[in-house]
Amino acid sequence: MKALFPRAGFAAGALLLFAAPFLTANPFYQRVAALTLLAAISASAWNVIGGYAGQVSFGHSVYFGIGAYAALLAYAKLGWPPIAGLPFGIVASFALSIVVGLPSFRLRGHYFSMATIAIAALAGILVTNWDFVGGAIGVMGPARARSFADLLFRSSLPYYAIFLCVLAILLLFTRLLQKSRMGFYLRAIGSDERVAQSLGVPVRRYKLYALLISGAFTSIAGTLYAVMVGFVDPNSGFGILISVNMVVMAALGGAGTLFGPLIGAAILVPLGEATNALWGARGIAYVAYGVIIMLLARFSPGGLAELGRFIVKGWRRRAA
Amino acid sequence: MLLEARGIVKTFGNVRAVDGADLAVEEGELVGLIGPNGAGKSTFFDCLAGNLAPEAGSIRFAGLESTRLSPDRHARLGLARTFQVPVVFAGMTVLENAMVGAFLRHESRARAAQKAAEALEFTGLAGQAEMPAAALGTAGRKRLGIARALATEPRLLLLDEALAGLTSSEIETAIGLLARIHARGITLLVVEHIMEVIHRLTRRVLVFHQGRVIAEGSPAEVTANPEVIRAYLGRRAKRGEA
Amino acid sequence: MILLQLAADGLLLGAVYALFSSGLTLIWGMMNVVNFAHGDFVMLAMYIAFFSFTLLKLEPIVFVPLAAVLLFALGGLVYYALVRHVMRGPMLAQILSTFGLALFLRYTALWAFSANFVSLPSGLVGGVYDLGGLRLAASHLIAGFSALLLTLGLHLLLTRTDLGSRMLAVSEDRVAAELVGVRPDPMQALAWGLGAAATGVAGALIALFFYVSPEVGNSFLLLAFVTVCLGGFGSVPGALLAGVAIGVIESFSAYWLGPATKDAVVLALFILLLWVRPQGLFGRA
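^ Those are the sequences you sent over. The predicted structure of the assembly is below.
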């Protein structure tokens, strides 16, 4: 009974929280809620390679950009509804993982992170100078819905519902992964590659699996973003801050935990939107991000998840 | 012959860490590899386990040419190893650590957990199974290293200084454990730099010095070997000067 | 003639790259920590130069050393307050710590100084000289030669002095160094201080001929990565060679391929190099 109660209470609370946007009529809150889930999708996708497998990528913006561009190019070049670009984004993300990701796995720790920063910067420059994909100007989506398939809604609620489904699928998938051999292998790789390999873990192969999954879901997040916003340019698709958001959210909630990225997103997206609304500047939010990350790295590298466990432990000890 | 290495050479810059080393281990043996610090034992060890690729020479394991196989291929073939510095997967429990090893031969989670639990039982860690691995002390970490390696169900276990840094009572326990592992039919190659420990454990010892095996025989034979004495004393004399 | 001109421009610029990359490579070689805020250290030094001149009317001969001193203090502070506590922790914490610092510095600068590009007056240290057909700006000459001298000085400090050998002792074996009476923390803080000071001088020198903006650090960070990687991680002479090489490559690719793609050339080179030779072109395996 004792064990059951918190779990049921937690589930009820979560349900209420996820239903909340349907209970408010305020479009701003609804939009923030939708953006929170979108950020949670990309941060959770990053978490597969960055959290579980411990390969800290600052280049995931490339996957996000690929997904976003795939959607809007499907519309601009072929006249298809943007969402039809989704499979193209996924296929391109697979290609990127194999061609660019695989050789980068020779690098460990800092070196891997450095390479990903450079790859993202290079991708940004290439897209900016490639006229076929709109160069520095970017690509627009449909201005008015031609059919339902364009998924163009005035309210944020339909997007919220879509994002919720995708996030649920991703988290369910991650949960299964966590329980399986692959989940153990990824965590072992993240902890110590050499030891993992000595125990028979084919390190490069499993890193590639993780990147394929992580990159595909990040590209889906990019596609969904483009469907909702209807516009992408090199900065909003490939900018370094897109990667930064994923890393910071996952790290704040707890990298390598199931719900960590969602929790991180639920704190940071509203914070960002609030500072944006109050001071009309995004920059302030990033000053706060910087401070938060430094504090995390210094005091609680496992994020809020670690801090939470620590507090619960202390509380139990006092209760006992 | 379960493991056979011939003419292994590995250099770092100008240093020839391993310089034409040979070694042969029969199935079911318990062989000690000793030598003063800096003799190149660990580098040789890394070559045998596939962690380093030697520049020259060849290694055969279980009848297969294994010189350039990756460490995970070695593990699959039945060669497991521990590390000198006992690293644990810090984010996992003790049981989960051992499960990583057990997953090599069992894909199902339940089977892997069962095999891992057996390995913990065998190494005397069953009581700590649910503890975070990071909470273990040095002796516990070393034992977990062995448990994890055993969970891969190896034919040959390479132990890199499994006893270094332990107290004398912990060493007693560890020696008992190694004897029991050997009794299970697992071949052991034990690297140590303390001769006294090796004496009690094995009947065949190889002495490693300046990148190669300089003597071989029973513990009594090698300790009486003048070349071995010179290798160990020379080291001490040099240290005395510094 | 144009080739000679491009080579000369590249060499002078490359010397400055070498100086700020030495700062990164020093910290790296000493403690295996990458400073992801390195580019933002350059940015800070550039703003120090800019405001020293515009607000305090200080001359370059004053503000370049000033930038060195301030950045030295910043480096020491960052070591004691942040890096010391994470350098033996999990990889994620190591990477995030200086990355968080980078975000903090960059966006504080954005907030305080706005996103506008500013620059020092172009004739601050003399005009453009014509040397037998070669047109060289005094600012480039001064920056290039001071950077060259300081990089060599840093190398000599590390290899020829007692202080340098104590710093190297700590980097090789912290525990052993402690046994022979060298306290590791002050030495590593000193490495951070020196690395940051070298970066400070480089930043102030770059400000003589390059615009300043809060986001300018990102491209310098990538340049420093490329240089350090090419020169071998932890090697100051390697950084010098590599910095000059990259300056020249940039200068030529900007001429042949246009300024927009010069960064792409250097980045592509960097990625290929990391894939093929992770230990650096001049570095040892």
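DSSP finds eleven helices and two strands in chain C. The longest strand of chain C covers residues 128-131.

Shout if you want it in another format.
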